[in-house]
Amino acid sequence: MMDKAKLARNWIFFAIVSFSLTFSNAMISGRIGINYGRNGDNLPSAFEAIEHLQNMNAYRVKIFDASPEVLKLLSGTKLQVSIMIPNEQLPDIASNQDVADQWVIENVLPYYPKTMIRYIMVGNEVLSVKNDTVLWYNLVPAMINVHNAIKLQNISNIKIGTPLAMDIMESTFPPSNGKFRDDMPVYEVLVPLLNFLNKTNSFFFVNVYPYLSWLENPNKISLDFALFTANNSSYNDPGSSLNYTNLLDQMLDSVHFAALKIGYENVSLAISETGWPHSGDIDQPGANIHNAATYNRNLIRKTTAFPPLGTPARPGVVIPTFIFSLFDENLKPGPRTERNWGLLNPNGKPIYELDLTGARLDREYSRLPEPWNNLPFKGKIWCVAAVDANVADLRDALDLACNGGNGICESLAPLKDCYQPLSEVAHASYAFSSYWAKYRNSSNGVHCHFNGLAMQTTIDPSHGSCRYPSVTL
Ligand SMILES: *[C@@H]1O[C@H](CO)[C@@H](O)[C@H](O)[C@H]1NC(C)=O
Ligand SMILES: *[C@@H]1O[C@H](CO)[C@@H](O)[C@H](O)[C@H]1NC(C)=O
Ligand SMILES: *[C@@H]1O[C@H](CO)[C@@H](O)[C@H](O)[C@H]1NC(C)=O
Ligand SMILES: *[C@@H]1O[C@H](CO)[C@@H](O)[C@H](O)[C@H]1NC(C)=O
Ligand SMILES: *[C@@H]1O[C@H](CO)[C@@H](O)[C@H](O)[C@H]1NC(C)=O
Ligand SMILES: *[C@@H]1O[C@H](CO)[C@@H](O)[C@H](O)[C@H]1NC(C)=O
Ligand SMILES: *[C@@H]1O[C@H](CO)[C@@H](O)[C@H](O)[C@H]1NC(C)=O
Ligand SMILES: *[C@@H]1O[C@H](CO)[C@@H](O)[C@H](O)[C@H]1NC(C)=O
C-alpha cells in the first residue's frame, strides 16, 4: 500500500506530466501541416517549395512518395515530415518482412533523424480502389511489417498510418448514423486496421472535403455551414443530441460513430487532406478565392485553438491536420477544381493571404474578392477548345473524341451541318461538346478537360444550322 506522501507526490507528478503532455501536444499537434503534391509541370524546385513552406510557418509537410531529393532538402529544416509508400508496393511489403525492412533502410535511414520523418503513410486511399481485394487485404499486413521494420531500427517516434477517403462511408448523416460502407470487408480490414492504430497509438487518417459534400448537395447543406460561418446556428443530431456548427465536425464525427459501431470508441482522428478549391468549372459552384480563404482561415483557427477543440463527440482532442495543397497541380486529370486547390502560385506568391499560425484576425486580412459563383449555375454549358490550345494537339484530341463512336462527330462529316468552318478549333469544340454531353453522367464521369485542351463556356458556339450539343443544368 502506498503511503499518503507518496500518493501525493505521485499525484503531483502525474498532474505535471499530464499537463505538460497535453500542453506540448496541443502546441505541437495543433499546428498546421501542408500537403506538397508535385503533379504539375510549372512548379518551382523542391528547394524553393521548402523555403516557401518555412516562410509560411508550416509545421508539417506531407509528400506523396519518399523522394530522395525532397527528403535530403528537408534535413536542414524543422518541418515534421510525412512520407508515403505507393499502393503498388503494398502486396510485396505485406508478404515479406525483408521487403519492408529494406524499404525502411532505403527510404528512411538515409535521412532520419536529421529529416524529421514522423509519419509513414502506407498507401493512399487504398479502400477507395474499388473491389481490389488483393490491395485491401494487404493493407494492414503491410502496415504491421513497416511498423516492425521501424522497431527493428529502434525508431520510436515515427507513426504508421494510411489516409482513407470519405467514400469508405456508407452514411455520414446525421453523424450519429455514421457507418462504414456495406461492401467493405469490415471485419477483415477495418477492425484489424483500428486495432493496429490503437495498439501503436497512431491516427486514423482521413481525407475530409466539406467542399465535395456541399457540392453534391448545395441545396440541402448551407454553404455557411461548410465554411464555418454559420455562427450561432447549429444542427442538433437527434441520435446523439450533439450540436454541430460546421460540416467538418459532422464528417469527422460520422467516422467516429462508424468506428464506435464496430467496437472502437477512442480512435484518434487526423486529417490527412482537407481544403477548398479557389477556382473551378462552371458546373462547380462555390470554388472561388473568397470561400477558399474563408474555409482555410477558419479551419486553421479551429485546429490551432488552445485548449484544443476536438469535435462535439470527442471534445478536447487534438486533430493533426494537413491542408491540401501547397501548389495548384496542373497535370491532374478530372474536373477543374482538381487543379486548383493550391495555396501558392508557382512563383511562390500566395493566391490569398493565409496565416498558418491562426493568430491573425479576419479584419487584419485585406479584403477578399466577392464570391461570384456560390449559387449553382442554371442553364446550358458547352465544352469548347481552350483559347491557348495547340492546333496539332487539338487535331489528335479531335480524332480521339470522334473515335468514341455513338455518332459523336456525325455532324462534322463533309456536307453535314458542322463541316464548315473546316478548322481544328471549330471541329474540336464540336467534338468536345458532343462527347462531354454524351458521357458526362456516365459511370467513368467524363470531364470537360481533354488533357487541358478544353474548357466550359456558357456562350453558345452554334452557328448557322450547326447546333453544338450542350449540357443543361
Ligand atoms: C464489385 O464486386 C461486386 C460483387 O462481386 C459487384 O457486384 C460490383 O459490381 C463490383 N463493383 C465494381 C465497381 O467493380
Ligand atoms: C536496437 O536496440 C537493441 C537493444 O538495445 C540493439 O541490440 C540493436 O543493435 C539496436 N539496433 C539498431 C539497428 O540500432
Ligand atoms: C457569421 O458571422 C460573420 C461575421 O460576423 C458574417 O460575415 C457571416 O455572414 C455570418 N453568417 C451568417 C450565416 O449569418
Ligand atoms: C452568438 O451568440 C452569443 C451569445 O449567445 C452572442 O454574444 C454572439 O454575438 C453571437 N454571435 C454571432 C456571430 O451571432
Ligand atoms: C444543443 O442546443 C440546444 C438548443 O440550442 C440546447 O438546448 C442543448 O442543450 C444543446 N446540446 C448540447 C449537448 O450542447
Ligand atoms: C485501445 O488501446 C488501449 C491501450 O492503449 C486499450 O486500453 C483499449 O482497450 C483499446 N481500445 C480498443 C477499442 O481496442
Ligand atoms: C475510451 O477512453 C475513455 C477515456 O479515456 C475510457 O474511459 C474508455 O474505457 C475507453 N474505451 C475503450 C473501449 O478503450
Ligand atoms: C446528370 O447528373 C446530374 C448531377 O451531376 C443530374 O442533376 C442530372 O439529372 C443527370 N442527367 C442525366 C441525363 O442523367
UniProtKB/TrEMBL annotation:
Record SUPFAM superfamilies:
(Trans)glycosidases
For the keyword Transferase, the answer is no
Q: What is its EC number?
A: 3.2.1.39
Enumerate the SMART domains for this protein.
Answer: X8
Indicate the segments forming the X8 domain, all copies. 381-468
Sorted UniProt keywords: Disulfide bond, Glycosidase, Hydrolase, Signal
Q: Which GO terms describe its biological process?
A: carbohydrate metabolic process
Source species, domain of life = Eukaryota
The question of whether Hydrolase is a record keyword is answered with yes
* Protein name as annotated: glucan endo-1,3-beta-D-glucosidase
